[in-house]
Design a protein that fits this description.
Length: about 180
């Protein structure tokens, strides 16, 4: 009787262990891919937002300079009343003060700092994506080994598990990001 339990029980126990192992490996691959997907979404959201903030700041600086130039042109036109001249000079002073504060506090007019932040954020996201890709590839390798090696390959075949592809980037993605081109958009 004990022999019969062992003959039936041990193979059944092995099937359960192998089945649970395969399910765990499949779920690990799905989880790793979801991490990549999340980071890619973060990158897709981050890049345009950071570029827009840098461009907006740069436009703001250009706007201040354009405003100062326009106010100066108006001031030297000679067609203003005394009150208009005072009002105009107050506006110019306010604009210049704002510009000088920006120059004092941010010698590179903050645009370079924003660019450095953009670069740092891009590097951070790219490193996170790279780490997630490595984790995914490790999970896929573990999963593929499990479905191809004996004896789990028998159960994997019965479960219609197919090998997964490793995450490899396309040739055009191997190139560095041309940030200068992104600013032209």
């Amino acid at each position: 009787m004990g022999f019969m339990i062992a003959v039936i029980g041990i193979p059944l126990l092995l099937v359960i262990v192998f089945y649970n192992s395969l399910i765990g490996k499949k779920n690990q691959v799905n989880n790793a891919f979801a991490s990549i997907d999340t980071l890619l979404k973060k990158r897709y959201d981050l890049i345009p937002n950071l570029i827009a903030s840098v461009q907006n700041y740069m436009q703001h600086e250009r706007g201040v300079l354009n405003d100062i130039t326009a106010l100066r042109t108006k001031a030297v036109s000679g067609q203003l009343s005394d009150d208009d001249k005072v009002n105009l000079n107050n506006q110019i002073s306010k604009k210049l003060a704002g510009l000088f504060v920006a120059v004092e506090n941010y010698p590179d007019l903050k645009a370079n700092q924003n660019f450095l932040q953009l670069q740092a954020a891009l590097n951070e996201v790219e490193e996170q994506i790279s780490a997630a890709r490595r984790a995914y590839n490790a999970s896929v390798t573990d999963y593929n080994n499990a479905i191809e090696m004996f004896p789990t390959n028998i159960l994997a075949s019965a479960m219609n598990y197919a090998p997964k592809n490793l995450f490899e980037i396309e040739d055009n993605e191997r190139k560095n990001v041309d940030v200068k081109e992104l600013f032209r958009k």
